[in-house]
Each structure stands twice: as C-alpha cells, then as structure tokens.
Amino acid sequence: MEDREEKERGVMAEQRGEEGESEATKENSTKGKEENGVDMKAEEEEEKQQKQQEEEDEEERGMSKQVEVTMEVSERVPGLTAGVIRGADLFGYVGIEAVLDQMRRKTMKAGFEFNIMVVGQSGLGKSTLVNTLFKSKVSRKSCTPNYEEKISKTVKLQSVSHVIEEKGVKMKLTVIDTPGFGDQINNENCWEPIVKYVNEQYEKYLKEELHVNRKRRIPDTRVHCCIYFLPATGHWLRPIDIEFMKRLGKIVSIVPVIAKADTLTIEERLEFKQRIRQDLAANGIRVYPQKEYDEDAEDRIVNDRIRESIPFAVVGTDKEHQVNGNKVLGRKTKWGIIEVENAAHCEFANLRDLLIRSHLQDLKDVTHNIHYETYRVRRLNESNMNFSELELSIRNSIEFLRKTL
Amino acid sequence: NTATTKEHREKEYVGFATLPNQVHRKSVKKGFDFTLMVAGESGLGKSTLVNSLFLTDLHKDRKLLNAEERISQTVEITKHTVDIEEKGVKLKLTIVDTPGFGDAVNNTECWRPITDYIDQQFEQYFRDESGLNRKNIQDNRVHCCLYFIPPFGHGLRPVDIEFMKALQDKVNVVPLISKADCLMPSEIKKLKERLREEIDKYGIKIYQFPDCDSDEDEEFKQQDRELKESTPFAVIGSNTVVEARGQRVRGRLYPWGIVEVENQSHCDFVKLRTMLIRTHMHDLKDITCDCHYENYRAQCIQTMTSKMNADKRVESPIPILPLSTPDVETEKLIKMKDEELRRMQQMLQKMQQQMHEQDL
C-alpha cells in the first residue's frame, strides 16, 4: 500500500503519462465522428485558460511533492543521501518541465478511452442526456436503426462506441445502456446482469494483465462511471434504488442524477436532495466522489462541495431555441423555456463539468486504482487459496511417500 | 278574460313539471356523498392533486418514513373524509388513498389490497341492502378511481396495464398523466395518443363519457367533443398560491416561469375538475350503482347459488313423498257423485233449451 501511495503522490505528471498509455488503444473498427460545432469558440477559450491554470498548478505541486518523496526515501534508507535542488537554484534552464509537453503530445496521439454506463427506468431521458453531455448523437437511441421504445422483458446490456474529437484530442467513448432495468412488475434481481457485466470487464482486463505476452495498451472496457437515473418524485429513494446502489456502489463509481428535474421547484429540489443524501448515508451507500479516496486537502475541498450538491438535478434536450438573441439548448413550454445549460435552471452544467471537464481522469483513476485493484485482490486470493490447497496436498503426499519409503 | 284563460290553463296544468325542483330541494337537504380513490406510485402528485381539486389540505401532518421502514412497506388503504359545503349544497367527500402501490422491488399483485377493498365495500352494501333496516345505509362504494400514470415513460408500463385490467370491472377507472409540467406540448400530445392506442390495444375498459343528447346546443356538443379528445387528462396540482399576471392563482413557481394549475393552456386540470365534479359526478355514481355494483351482486348471487347446488349434489337427493292414494270406497263415492253431476248438467241443458224454444 505504501508504495502505491508514494507512487500516486509522486511526480503526478509522470504517472498521468503512464496511465494515458495503458488506457488508450488503437482499435481497428472505429467510427470517426466529428464533434458538432456548437458554441465551440467560447468553450475553447475557457478550456485553454483552464488547462493553463491546471498545468501551472500541477507543476508547483509536482515540485513540492518531489521534495517530500526524496525526504522520505532518505529517511528510510540509511546511507542514501538525497538532496533537493529547487528550480530557482538551477544555474540555467534544464528543461525538466518539457516532460509535460511530451506527455501531452503522447496522450493526444494515443487518445483516451471512457466507458460510461447509464442505468434507469425507461423514459427517464438517459439517451437524451448522454447526447447532450457529449454534444453528439452517441446514445443507442440515435445509433440503432431499429430502435423501439418498447419495454424489454429482461435486462440486456448494449454498448455503443464512438470516437469523438476535440482540438486534436481524441476520445473513444463507449455508452453502455441497460434497457429493461426496473420496468417490470417484479424487478427482483434486475441488477444482476449489470453486476455481472461490470465484473466481466474487470476479469477481461485482469486476464490480459496476467498474460505472459501482454499488449502494450490493454484495451480498457471497464466501466469508469455509472450514471444512475432517479425519477423526480420529490419524496425519497425507492427500494429498487437502494438495492441497486448498495450493490453497485462497491464495484463501480456511481453518479446519481435526478432525471427530468423540470417538474421540481427549487425548494422541492433541495428537500429531495437532502432526503436522498440522508437515505444514502443511512444505507451505507458510497457514491462518487467517495470520501475515502480524497487524496489531499485540496481534493477534499473540491469534492466536499460536489458532495453537498449531489445528486444533480438535470434536464436534457437536443433542441435549440432562441433566448435573448442567443441560441440555447432548452425545452419550450407554455410557461417558459427551460435552459439546459443555465445554472439557475438546472444542474446539467455541474454534471457535465464533473464528468468531463474536471473529474474524467479521476474517474478513470478511481476505477483503475481502487475498484479494479479490489477485484484483482479478491480474484487472486481466490486462486491463491486453490493454489495453497494444491501445495498442501502435494506436501502431504511427499510426506506420505517419505514415510513409506 | 285573462282570469278565465288563466283558470283554464290551471285546469289543464297538472304540475309534475316541478318534480326536478322537488328532487333538487330534497337532495340539497340530504346532501351528496362521493368516494374517490387515487392510485399510483409514490411521488406522482396524487395528494397535491386532490387538494387542488377540492381546495382542501388533507395531508397536513404527513410523516415521511425513513429508509428501513420503506423497504418492508406493503400496500395500505387509507381513508380521509371531509365535508364540503358550497352554496347550501353539502358534499361528503371520501378520499381513499393507496400508499405503497407500485413502490416495492417486487410488485406482483400489488393491486390485490385495492381490489379487495372495493369488493368489501360492495359486499357491505349488498348486505345492508338485503337487511331489514334500510333507512340509513351508508354508501361507501368507490365511485371513481383516478389512476396516475407517470409522465416519464413512453406509454403504459406492465404495472399500469395489470392494474387497470384488474379494476376495470369493479370501478370507474380514469387514467391521468401526472406531473404534466415536465412535458412539452408536443410530448403531451404524443403520449396521449400512445396511451389511447395502448388502452385500445389491451382492451382496457376505462370510464367513457356518455354521449351528450342530440338535442343539446352546439356549444355543449363542442365542449363534450373537446373533453373526449383530450383524454387521458394531463394534470398538474399545486398546494401553493403564487402571483401570476397580477393575480393570485394556484400554481408552481419555477426559475423559468410560472405554471398555473387552472390555466387551460398549461394543463387539463380544469377539464378534469369539470368532468369529475361539475358534469359527471352523478353519472359516475350511476354507473357504479347500475353497472359495477350490479355485476358484483349478480356474481355474488351466482356463486352463492352454485355453492348451494354443489352442496345439494353432495348430499342424498330430497326424497319425493308419495301422494296418498284414496281407498276404494271413497273412489266409488266420487264416481257416483260425478255421474250425478253429469246427469243434472244434462237436465239443466234440456230445460234451458225448452225455455228457449218457448220464448221463440
């Protein structure tokens, strides 16, 4: 554990680079899809600034962490003297910071993978929300030619993959849909196919990792994030919600959202959220971002703010309307236009920022470092037990033979 | 002259045209009663809608259960009775609520407590009706069941179909699209069409508005047509009063606008209220009495008689008592008397003939 922690707290940039390499893949059959250019310019500026700020922060953090690590190492290993030379003390420009550029270039070439699962009853707007999040038609609804809005009798998971590109950065996005969940009269164990699927993806990755000749970039089909759609009843969590989140919260990062939230007034929304949070705490359900995985005080502050406002109340749409001379995504009713990206109307923007702009990499990290490792340890222990039994039986037979001989 | 014509008219005038007024006066004195059931999953706005319909606040002290209590919840039946008076007319309104319906993970036969309740009310009425003292029979039969369909789906869900089919022969089922403020006008239209299609397809017998008489005026007919075409009603309810367009109205305040419950372009609440209270309340009661209750009663009697027949077949058949045969002596006497009677009849006939001939 300590080694892992050190690694994580160590030079973050380096680690990020490694991660990028192991997760990106070059698939043979990728459907190249261009991004819709909707209000790209404004976003570009924002993102540029954000990225610059992030880089600077990272640099500083990297430097200070470096100091910590070397100190610890020198403490533990007697005889090893480690000194620290700060950037200001260097005689000239060495170029260490250029590693960040190299890393960025490599990841841009390799691209990212992101697998998102959507779970919820039929009609809660899952497909529309995913399309709105990624501003392109990535959901199963938009891609399957024979898509029918019928309620299926069993839960069958279906996934659709697309490669989206933005400013030279490519992302292979896979949306895993779960039609039939919670739609029947008897929904007992309707979460089992989903649990099975998640574990299967971990198993696939594990097998690949244990191979003698393993691929440079293991294809990552593990579910990085599961968005769970709660109907906007305004009352409390239903038994099916509790059962699902209890079971899946242990193996995947769940992000609950209140779907079709345009039926709740602001007060109702706040009350509902509070009750949901109480319910989650009462049942020991941990949703993303989990408190235990906060790495440092800074993370904790940011994540605490997020934890105080989950679940996000979202409204999704793919239709645009004119509001005050601007084109906005919204739903037009007889009493007004609900603007999806307006923070005063709904929390879609918060969800999008969480999932894509700020915590996308973190979601992948948590999946890889925590959920996957938990699965791996469990599996290896299981096989270890078998192995040790075998060992024991071999030893016994050797003893027996020795006695008889 | 006017006095005589008036007198004349009064002589021809019988006066039973005042019967409706007499009935009206008596009903006002007696008051009406109406039992309305609301069914549907939690959180669809049932209580809010009932409060909006009858301008009451029936659920002031509602306690929300915590998570553990909810997991083991079964379907309950709760009753609230309230007396409402308007312009001298009294209405005893009973609202039957069905908390817990459709909320569990396994909702198999979750409508059973509801159908049992309705049957119980029929049974009680049946017994009262067949009893000796029928003066003060309390009519607790359910006159109408509002079924709340969530606006989130794409049509009828399995639980909706099963519920409505289980209740269609016992009570007037009126399906509603609840929380309609999360739907755009185009979505409402599509959903209504879809629901009507599916209700037809699955043969669900919901409450049908009676056709208006052919002698009604065009405006009334138009209204009736509009009413029929906008079913199932898409409703919104509210417990709060907000300020809109300079007036204080029942509504919901959102950051993007104000939804007015009584605005016909916002939702069908007014149509529902008109139908339920102002125009079709009596029809709902009639159909409950004449149709659903009679079905229940006939079924009940049939099962009772078939039970009796079944019981009969089990026991030995009732022995047919033989008629006592008269003894030989009495038979002789009867024969003699018969003969005497015949002889006397013949003599009478002869005498009659003779008299007839003498007259001629």
UniProtKB/TrEMBL annotation, chain A:
It is found in: Cytoplasm, Cytoskeleton. Its main location: cytoplasm. InterPro entries: G_SEPTIN_dom (IPR030379), P-loop_NTPase (IPR027417), Septin (IPR016491), Small_GTP-bd (IPR005225). The keyword Cell inner membrane does not apply. Pfam families: Septin (PF00735). SUPFAM superfamilies: P-loop containing nucleoside triphosphate hydrolases (SSF52540). Residues 1-68 are annotated as: Disordered. Residues 1-41 have a biased composition (Basic and acidic residues). Keywords: Cell cycle, Cell division, Cytoplasm, Cytoskeleton, GTP-binding, Nucleotide-binding. One of its GO terms (cellular component) is cytoskeleton. Residues 110-382 form the Septin-type G domain. One of its GO terms (molecular function) is GTP binding. One of its GO terms (biological process) is cell division. It comes from the Eukaryota. Belongs to the TRAFAC class TrmE-Era-EngA-EngB-Septin-like GTPase superfamily. Septin GTPase family. This is Septin 12.
From TrEMBL, chain B:
Gene3D superfamilies: P-loop containing nucleotide triphosphate hydrolases. It is found in: Cytoplasm. InterPro entries: G_SEPTIN_dom (IPR030379), P-loop_NTPase (IPR027417), Septin (IPR016491). It holds the Pfam family Septin. GO terms for cellular component: cytoplasm. Residues 30-303 form the Septin-type G domain. Keywords: Cell cycle, Cell division, Cytoplasm, GTP-binding, Nucleotide-binding. GO terms for molecular function: GTP binding. Signal peptide: none annotated. The record marks 152 as: Important for dimerization. It comes from the Eukaryota. One of its GO terms (biological process) is cell division. Belongs to the TRAFAC class TrmE-Era-EngA-EngB-Septin-like GTPase superfamily. Septin GTPase family. This is Septin. It comes from Myripristis murdjan (pinecone soldierfish).
